[in-house]
Amino acid sequence: MLFGRNKEAFRFEVQGDEAVLTRCSSRDAHIEIPDTHDGKPVTAIGDNAFYDNGKMESVSLPATLKKIGMNAFRGCDSLKEAVLPALVTSIGEYSFAGCKELERIALPDGIAEIPSGAFSKCRRLASVTVPNSVSSVGSEAFAGCQALGSVLLGSGVKSVGEDAFKGCSGHLCLVMPESLPMDEELQQHCDRIYRRLGDGLLLAAYAGHETQLVLDDEVLGMPVTAIGEKVFAMFAYLESVTLPKNLSSIGDYAFAGCSGLENIVFPDTLEEIGKGAFSGCGQREGRPGQLSGGYDPASCFGLRSVRLPASLRSVGENAFMGCAALTDVEFGGEGTYLAPGCFSMCPIREFRFPRRTAEIQTSVLRGCAYLENVDIPEGVDSIWERAFEGCMSLKTLRLPESLELIGEGAFSNALSLESIVIPAKVRSIADEAFAFTPNLTDLTVAPDNARFELRDGALIDREEKRLICFLSCREGSYTVPADIETIGALAFSASRLSELTLPAAIMRVGDWAFRASQIRKLTVENEKISFGAGALLDTDAEDIEINAPEAVRKQLLGDEETA
C-alpha cells in the first residue's frame, strides 16, 4: 500500500462533475493525492485540508488540480517541496503559511494572484519565481521568509501589497517588471531591487553599507545592464565600486554625493553616464591652495582619476561637477558627447576633448581653477556659454580653425589667460566672452576673418558695429571709434584705463560695462545713450569725473532707472 493512498485518509466532496479534497488525516511522510474520486477528477483542495499536518514531508498533487483553498497546507512544518500542477489557477490566502521547512515552490503559469499570507513564515524558502500571469502579490504574501534570497516578479504584476516581504532576509534581491511602481516600503524590506529592462536588468535600489562594493554581473541568469537614478546617492562611506561587466548605462545622480569614493573602473560596455551621476564625489580638506578661494587638490579626497571607455557615447549634464580631487580625465574613444557642466568645478590640470567633438557645451569646464592645458580638436565649430569661465590657471589656448561661434562668457574670469587667436571662420562672438581677463595681452584676429577685427586694443564686430571687449591691460586714455554704436556687456570690466570717451554714435552700453574698472574720467557725448544695469558696479563712482548730459549722469549714478 502506498503512503497516503488508504481511502480512510482522504475525505472528498463531489461537486457536479468534479471532486474536492476536503480533509486528509494521514500522517505519512509522503502523501500522494489521487487524480480521481468515484470517477470524478480531483480539481480542488479545500480550505484547511492539510492544516497543521506536522508529519508530511512531501506531497504529490494530481495533474487535474485547479484550485488550492485557504489555509490548505498551513502549518505543515515538515513539508519541504511543493510542485503545483500546470492547471492550477488559484491558491487561497495563507495556503502554505508556516511551512517552516519548505525550500522550494514551483508556481505554474495561469495563477492570477499570490494572495495575502500565502507563503508567510516559510523560513527556509530561498527563491521564488512569480509567473507572468500573476497580476498582484497580496499583503504579507512572503512575510517572515527569513531565508528568501531572490524573488522574480513576472511581467504581469501590477501591485504588491503591504508588508509582502516584511521580515525577509537582509539580503533579499527583488526583480520587478518595468511597469510596477516603486514604493518606499519595497525598498525598506529589500536589499536590492532590479527592474526588467529588455533582456537585462536595471538596479533600481540598494540598501547595503559596504565600503568596497562589488555589484552583481547578473541576477537569476539575466545581465545587469543599467544603474538607476540616485541608487547610491549620498553613500558617503563608499570607497570603491566594481561595476557589472555588462553595464551600459549609469542613471542620473546614481553616485552623487559619494564624497569618499576614490576608485571606480568603468567597463568596456558602458555607453551612457547620466546627469550628475558622480557630482560631488570628493571632499575638500586641508590647507587652502594658492588660487583665490581654491584648495590644494592633493589635500582633498575622492575620485582622482577617471578613465572613460571607447564605448562611451555621452556624459550627462554636471556628471562629475565638484569632484574636489579629480585631476585626471582620459577618454578612450571618439565623439563622446560632453553635456553642459559635466566636468565643472574640478581641479583638472590638463584636458583633452575626445576626437570628433563637434561642440563644446555650456559650462563644461567652468570653474576648473587649476586647468593649465586644453586640447580642443579640429572639427569643433562652437564653444558655448561659460565653457571655460573661471579657468584661472589657463594661460594660452589654441582655438581650432573649424571654430565658428564663441558663446557668452566663454572665457570670462580666465585670470591668467595671456594669448588667444580668433580663427578666420568665427562668425559670432557673444558679449562677456573675454570679460575679466586682466592678463590678456595678445588677442589676435586672423587676417582673413570677415567679421571681427582687433583695433587699438578693442575687439570689434564690424557687422553689428559693436565693441565686444577692450584689453584690460591697456592703460591711459581711449576714445571708442566713431563707427561703433554698441558697447557689449562687461566690455571694459577690470580695465586699467584712466580716461574713456564714448562718441555720439554710441546708442547702447551693455550691463556692467565698466565693472571693477580703474576709469577716473568718463566722457559721454550722446545724450540719448542707454546704459544697462550696473555700469559702474564695483568702481569708486564718486571719484569718477563724468562729463555727460545730466540725464546720462543720473543713469550712470543710479538716480534713474536704467533704460
Mean pLDDT: 93
Class of one domain, according to the CATH hierarchy? Answer: Alpha Beta
User: How large is the radius of gyration?
Assistant: 36 Å
Class from helix and strand fractions: mainly beta
Largest sheet: 11 strands, mixed
The tally of helices reads: 2
Shape: rod-shaped
Catalogue the unreliable spans: 559-563
Helix content estimate:
under 10%
* Corresponding CATH architecture of one domain: Alpha-Beta Horseshoe
The CATH topology of one domain corresponds to Leucine-rich repeat, LRR (right-handed beta-alpha superhelix)
Strand content: 25-35%
CATH superfamily of one domain: Ribonuclease Inhibitor
Distance between the termini: 106 Å
The strand count comes to 50
Tell me what the structure shows.
By secondary structure, the protein is mainly β. Among the domains are: 207-332, Leucine-rich repeat, LRR (right-handed beta-alpha superhelix); 349-450, Leucine-rich repeat, LRR (right-handed beta-alpha superhelix) (Alpha-Beta Horseshoe), CATH 3.80.10; 464-563, no CATH class. Helix content is 2%, strand content 29%. The protein has two helices and 50 strands. The strands form 13 sheets. Strands 12, 14, 16, 17, 18, 20, 21, 23, 25, 29 and 31 form an eleven-stranded mixed β-sheet that branches. Strands 1, 2, 4, 5, 7 and 9 form a six-stranded mixed β-sheet that branches. It has a six-stranded mixed β-sheet with strand order 41-42-43-45-47-49. Strand 1 and strand 2 (18-24) form a beta hairpin. Mean pLDDT is 93; it is low at 559-563.
